[in-house]
Hints:
CATH superfamily of the largest domain: Response regulator
Radius of gyration: 20 Å
CATH architecture of the largest domain: 3-Layer(aba) Sandwich
Order of helices and strands: EHHEEHEHEHEHEHEH
CATH class of the largest domain: Alpha Beta
Largest sheet: 5 strands, parallel
Strand order of the largest sheet: 5-4-6-7-8
Number of helices: 8
Structural class: alpha/beta
Oligomer: single chain
Amino acid sequence: xxxxxxxxxxxxxxxxxxxxxxxxxxxxxxxxxxxxxxxxxxxxxxxxxxxxxxxxxxxxxxxxxxxxxxxxxxxxxxxxxxxxxxxxxxxxxxxxxxxxxxxxxxxxxxxxxxxxxxxxxxxxxxxxxxxxxxxxxxxxxxxxxxxxxxxxxxxxxxxxxxxxxxxxxxxxxxxxxxxxxxxxxxxxx
Length: 189
């Protein structure tokens, strides 16, 4: 869920300034804010964005609404990656797609490519997909990312492991492109 109200501490973290600086900005009328019944200052997202633009301060990526969805496809089989890339791009004209062929590369791209969805093969060289999925869920910067796991082993035990690792949904290989696209649409409304 998108954050719409920020504490003065959170604003200080976004702006890389001391908490007292944010309070001074509010008290001087430079930054719009309101007070809770308990006397705590709160800043609305739109007021924070306006302030950052007005004073030409860096805009954190998570405050800017993107009109393009970003998807990372992680699989060690190039043919599978190519198939998924073509299908997703046909379905979603306004999307950016990136690829990774192992868990290490996926981790690097997760840190640099602000994502909405990861289509993740679970059997990867290096770091397996289960570990990648758990890492996504443990990091507060990535835990919002939807994960569609892909597995060649469909069993009750494996399904339990997939969901306990943090996946939102899964597909079994081999899969129909229509099933893939149905799940992508469900995860990226």
